[in-house]
Amino acid sequence: MMNTKLVKRILFGLTLTLAVVLARLIPHAPNFTPLLAMTIFCAVSVEDKKWGLLMPLIAMGISDIFLGWHASMIFVYGAIILVGVLSIFLCKSQKISSVAMATLISPLVFYGVTNFGVWAVTSMYSKTFIGLYMSYIAGLPFLKVSMSSTVLFSCILFVPFFMLKQSNIREKLSERFVLIR
Fold this sequence. Notes:
Blueprint: H1 4-25, H2 35-45, H3 49-67, H4 73-90, H5 96-121, H6 129-166, H7 170-176
């Protein structure tokens, strides 16, 4: 028979992954998804860091089956991996300040990597410094939305996490909910 804690962890991971898949599939403003916040949250809260890195990629993969693929996908997935690894290192202490730093840096990393990818592998921009510059300029509205959604969804995910972590009933709740270890 499976360990109850393991079952709860698996259910939590599946629920979080499914929520991100659905959030990407329902109509929304471009780049306004919980994906980066989930990536940071998994890096902080999932004990097995391998799974913490894989969960956002699984959510992306499932939703991209329905949304379609494009030439710069390797850069999108690479940016998610980079955000996850960066978050693991930035948030080792699990302090609010380190999570806030990861929350603000992650959209910038995603923007930098993915806009470089669009410039590098598509014919939208000339392969010059000016073309790269234009790619980054064109991506600024998406950065603003990505920053807003990452801050919002990080608050939604991390406020309960830190409240439970700080509460004196942490041990009781950690047995019931998988968020805390």
